Amino acid sequence: METPVDIFRIEADGQMMWLGAADSLGEAKARVQEFAKTWAADYMIVNLKSGLRLTIAAGGASGPSARASEPKFEPEWPR
């Protein structure tokens, strides 16, 4: 059983904006893909229980109307 994780958007000034929680890493990755369609930004998925953090680059798009296509997931979350 996976533990719940929190999803954050990393703002340009380095601040973290909490976007919600997910029941699993897979669900969190899917939600980040949806967020990336609206907000071209980097994201972080955090497991508060274990302290593991996964940073997701949204694809390098810039500008107010730019939209990222597929986020890149690096590094792979340990199983």
Question: How would you characterize this protein structure?
Answer:
- By secondary structure, the protein is α+β, with helices and mostly antiparallel strands.
- The protein has one domain (5-60).
- Helices cover 18% and strands 32% of the residues.
- It has one helix at residues 25-38, and strands at 5-10, 16-22, 42-46, 53-57, 72-73.
- It has a five-stranded antiparallel sheet, with helices on one face.
- The termini are close together.
Q: Note the main sheet.
A: 5 strands, antiparallel
Strand order of the largest sheet: 2-1-3-4-5
**What's the number of extended β-strand segments?**
5
What is the percent of helical residues? 10-25%
Q: How many domains make up the 3D coordinates?
A: 1
Percent in strands: 25-35%
Order of helices and strands: EEHEEE
- Write down the overall mean pLDDT: 77
Please tag this protein with its features:
single chain; 79 residues; alpha+beta; 5-stranded antiparallel sheet; 1 helix; 5 strands; globular
Q: Would you spell out the secondary-structure blueprint of this structure?
A:
Blueprint lengths: L4 E6 L5 E7 L2 H14 L3 E5 L6 E5 L14 E2 L6
Antiparallel strand pairs: 1-2, 1-3, 3-4, 4-5
